[in-house]
Amino acid sequence: xxxxxxxxxxxxxxxxxxxxxxxxxxxxxxxxxxxxxxxxxxxxxxxxxxxxxxxxxxxxxxxxxxxxxxxxxxxxxxxxxxxxxxxxxxxxxxxxxxxxxxxxxxxxxxxxxxxxxxxxxxxxxxxxxxxxxxxxxxxxxxxxxxxxxxxxxxxxxxxxxxxxxxxxxxxxxxxxxxxxxxxxxxxxxxxxxxxxxxxxxxxxxxxxxxxxxxxxxxxxxxxxxxxxxxxxxxxxxxxxxxxxxxxxxxxxxxxxxxxxxxxxxxxxxxxxxxxxxxxxxxxxxxxxxxxxxxxxxxxxxxxxxxxxxxxxxxxxxxxxxxxxxxxxxxxxxxxxxxxxxxxxxxxxxxxxxxxxxxxxxxxxxxxxxxxxxxxxxxxxxxxxxxxxxxxxxxxxxxxxxxxxxxxxxxxxxxxxxxxxxxxxxxxxxxxxxxxxxxxxxxxxxxxxxxxxxxxxxxxxxxxxx
Amino acid sequence: xxxxxxxxxxxxxxxxxxxxxxxxxxxxxxxxxxxxxxxxxxxxxxxxxxxxxxxxxxxxxxxxxxxxxxxxxxxxxxxxxxxxxxxxxxxxxxxxxxxxxxxxxxxxxxxxxxxxxxxxxxxxxxxxxxxxxxxxxxxxxxxxxxxxxxxxxxxxxxxxxxxxxxxxxxxxxxxxxxxxxxxxxxxxxxxxxxxxxxxxxxxxxxxxxxxxxxxxxxxxxxxxxxxxxxxxxxxxxxxxxxxxxxxxxxxxxxxxxxxxxxxxxxxxxxxxxxxxxxxxxxxxxxxxxxxxxxxxxxxxxxxxxxxxxxxxxxxxxxxxxxxxxxxxxxxxxxxxxxxxxxxxxxxxxxxxxxxxxxxxxxxxxxxxxxxxxxxxxxxxxxxxxxxxxxxxxxxxxxxxxxxxxxxxxxxxxxxxxxxxxxxxxxxxxxxxxxxxxxxxxxxxxxxxxxxxxxxxxxxxxxxxx
Lengths: 465, 465
Hints:
By secondary structure, chain A is of the alpha+beta class. In chain A, 35% of the residues lie in helices and 22% in strands.
């Protein structure tokens, strides 16, 4: 029995039918060369027999003294968690994305351990998909991605590799999201780290107090500048997932031409795609959109050190940068330069801040959004319009029981007033974009994939001219 | 814009993650003889182009003056409602049932018209499935079954038959559940028919008053006799669906041997299956289980006539019989005879009652369950343990665009304290059983299919000896 951390409780509070609070990851594999045609069905048979379920995958929610706790599930039913499924004809990426869109829209069953592992056959000629879904109260996106990577190997000859639910827990690995989540900053701000947060009204009142204090402080005034947009409407319960990989070489060539980082270029690609998408809906705000970009604070806060949050030396304390996307700027090259400069300034600001100041700044940036999420009220102050998140992925070609990993795509969370989440991950020589959005608020979201490509093309052309 | 009837509102109140309030129907079709291998994919293509959506399939929930209403959905997204899906290898009935179990566990998206049409390929050699899911607030099980039948034809040569969402509404057909639902009786009892019911606490208080009055009345005292059982625990959010057809000829032979009705025999099969299932779990109550069996009141209340509920002469006013299942009786033949006698007595009682008395009796029978459902409290008085419902199905072989309907199975609702629902339907020369239950409260529910068969076998053997 283990009490839920205050931040993990927030994800339970925030969850409702139209706002499921689980994260996911989609992996696409190729059959091993010598694999028979029914390879995936055989793999499913084999996985079904793997009934050893390790922590945290054996933990379900329960309540003790009115507080949520994790307990071992004595009646774990693997058939509920491991699902063998198939794509309909013709089994293209399009059918796969439609499948994930529907699955990611479904709430999880809170009476069971909050994870699902979907093995998906019928993709292309000799490919298959794996979609892993984990509730954010059990694991955040970064932890889930790490766990997924631990399932893989760079050795194509390895066999008998267990599925994610049967991985031995690494000694000292916490296996949950405490400390790694942005929401932790909110808990900190409220001075409640490590304690139970209490009730939603109490937390909301504290957030409001914080926001009002900050708005009177000229030093923080600059964070309240995001425009209103259709991205910041209430959402409905169905999702659209769109995903695509872009060649890292192309992105790096653009970096070199402009003297920017990879992160600047992918942010500019997102900016360009958002601009085109919103212009086509006649919904581009006059003022530029602001993106909330989580960044690792390792290099900034390293010397000061914060052991409690330094999870096994992997340094996952997270701060945020509010990146102006300059969606009012029509020239792609100029837009990238401005974005680069804005992000650079934000980083420089962090370099001059104490760890405590960083935590406060981060929490403050998130506070208005957290207040809106918790109370359901429309934003009076908007600090950002969209989340653009970068989750580290594997650098080398990976395999699972000889099947080569062709692509890995994050599937994140859309929320009320934050209808779109753009999460990227790098793998091998690619950058993979996973977009999740409310299907109703943001029609035909899949078009953004073309707009991302167009955004990259424009930058390439501008660099040449 | 049309306000929801009081009864339809109840289904919205009752819905929660662990208790979705939609009903479903599964149909299994064979390919037309001349159909190509990719028949189902072509059918999916064709259905996708059928974007004419007729009432009630174009209606979504909205709120006017704090009351729920149906309004036309201006942004209807057919891709959300029509889903083309596939079974994994080896595509047996087992995979189909697992698929339906998972799908039926998912809450619907309340911001959209509350229906889904799933076309399922990959079943057997040349078969496919259709699973239709409709929220109970839009349509009850009987209306849904009728609507499904209107999609079909007895003519194998007919083509260009539209899907369910593009059926023209029959003049005078109400297309909703008003009047046909058991819950209507509750509304009536509260004297609120046609008006808004108000709030949950008000309704619960009224129900409690009714129950307490009835318990003091010796005439009604006999209804409070159901034992406690594991069927009447709180449920969780995941379902198991099990379905099978049994030969009507065999059932009729048993009827003849014992001088009973078909309904008596299928009720006895259910009794036998429940007895074996609970005995194997060491959970059979000493006192016999009581089933709530909805019956059409046409023949009883006909002369008195109740035009308001006589839906286009189809006579769907419903009363309930509390059928003692005699699960304490070990001899199958004796059990059937006792069940037959009990049901006969209940019917005789109705024959001597005025329509008003029938409505009161029905409502009273349901009141304790309704009270438990609405308040979430554990039952203090249990009037029944399980629902065994019989929905009329097509009598002749049916076709949809030349594809022969091989079987049709109802998928109903499991509720807190009512973890199992057994719904039957007849089709052609078969009786189809559809069992839906909470997967956690009732482990390995699919075994009941074998126990139903054993129950029938026992009766056949007893009749011979």
